[in-house]
Amino acid sequence: MALPALLRDTLSIPVVGAPLFIISNPDLVIAQCKAGIVGSFPALNARPKEMLEEWLKRITGELAEYKAKHPDKKVAPFAVNQIVHASNDRLQHDVDLCEKYKVPIQITSLRAPDEVVPSAHRYGGLVFHDVTNVKHAKRALQSGVDGLILVCAGAGGHAGALSPFALVPEVRQFYDGCLLLSGSISPISARASRHRRKATPPRRTSSASSTRPARRSSTPTCSPACTATTSRRASPRQASIPTIYPLPTRAR
User: Fold this and answer.
1) Counting beta carbons within 10 angstroms of the beta carbon of residue 48, is it exposed (0 to 12), middle (13 to 18) or buried (19 or more)?
2) CA of 197: how far to CAs of 187, 189, 190, 201, 203, in Å?
3) What is the average per-residue pLDDT within 90-99?
4) What are phi and psi of 131, to 5 degrees?
5) For strand 105-110 and strand 178-182, is the pairing parallel, antiparallel, or unpaired?
6) In terms of C-beta density within 10 A (0-12 exposed, 13-18 middle, 19 or more buried), how is residue 191 classed?
7) Engineered SS bond to 146: which of 59, 126, 138, 186, CB 3.0-4.6 Å?
8) What residues contact residue 161 under an 8 Å CB cut-off, 6+ apart?
9) Over residues 115-130, mean pLDDT
């Protein structure tokens, strides 16, 4: 399986920055894309809805200018997360704006993205859909999505209950396209240890003349590459970034 052409030569590492509710904004998205990872934000973060056009105009303009000035650098495309649900009364408005500004990637959540896929494909955009089980994966593929985001146990936001070690091979039984994987990518113990060290000040001795360094936790932590790929759409305490896994197809 190969990555879509849009992602093949534009990424420094195969990572998608999660669309974080409230937190993700143009500043963060632009910085992520300039670093060579896909930056994303929920369309609903732009409030009121008229602000979405301002965000899209700024992101597309600044990235185009940056790519023109730095032709040798990998500049990743950006993505907009659409909540495909009856409660989202601005969905069509947001989809239409994404088509107007030719947003490279749309990440869809909840219901199957029947309204989003035709719009994105009209201008050559990609649609990746969140799924938590095989049933939802098959339904998303019926809509014509370009890839699946397997939201597994340990992910933030609309978290699934399945282990990635179970869901990935199940999906590979019927789909050999692009998968994005989130959830349980770094061990919980490592994340907890990292949070404890941030919250706890260094221990000090009572003697002012003591030079003994503060005792460090003996709990092993994961590498920066590992901690950068935990779960998606989590809270600020759970840095959430899904990783693209161009996994091999199963033996035929």
Assistant:
1) exposed
2) 16, 12, 11, 8, 11
3) 98
4) -140, 150
5) unpaired
6) buried
7) 126
8) 132, 153
9) 98
Confidence of residue 72 (pLDDT cuts 50, 70, 90): very high
What is the average pLDDT across 35-41? 98
Peptide bond into 48 cis (omega under 30): yes
Cβ–Cβ under 8 Å, residues 230 and 186: yes
pLDDT digits (tens, 9 = 90+) for 185-201: 666 555 555 555 555 55
The 3-state secondary structure of 201-228 reads: CCCCCCCCCCCCCCCCCCCCCCCHHHHC
H or E segment and range at residue 108? strand 105-110
Distance CA 158, CA 167 (A): 16
Q: Is the pLDDT of residue 222 over 70?
A: no
Nearest to 133 by CA among 181, 170, 174: 170
Structure tokens at 121: 């494909």
Q: Which residues contact 190 (CB under 8 A, 6 or more apart)?
A: 219, 220, 221, 222, 226, 227
Total H helices, total E strands in the chain: 9, 7
Which of 15, 10, 5, 3 lies closest to 185, judged by CA?
A: 15
